[in-house]
Write the structure tokens for this entry.
Amino acid sequence: MRRIWLSDDLADYLTFPYAQVVFRIERERANLDGTSPTREVVYGLTDLPGTGAKAAAELLALVRGHWTVENKLHWVRDVTYDEDRSQVRKGNGPRVMASLRNTAISLLRLAGADNIAKATRWCSRHMDLCPRLLGFAV
């Protein structure tokens, strides 16, 4: 369950550039194992105007959309590609490797893969077919 409160009462007092609205989001999540639900409260600023129901719904959608990126990209890089244990640390190496991982994930998603780990394993066993992901005829 998510609840949001918006206020533009502080807009004249904020020195943060472009800040129009402050917000408070309360998240309550039930645990499937039967333990007590967890509750989280976050605060934020936005440059989006308005404090009505439409503005609240839009802001909640944007915040939730952020987690889509976190779950579909960063989590995959961290878990499937074990990026945190990479030993590439000098020069442009880390940036190049991150770009290659992002490219691989994007190509697999465009090819219709829901499970990147499974698709990566499939590619490792069918390397002769992988050039199709790049648009090359095989």
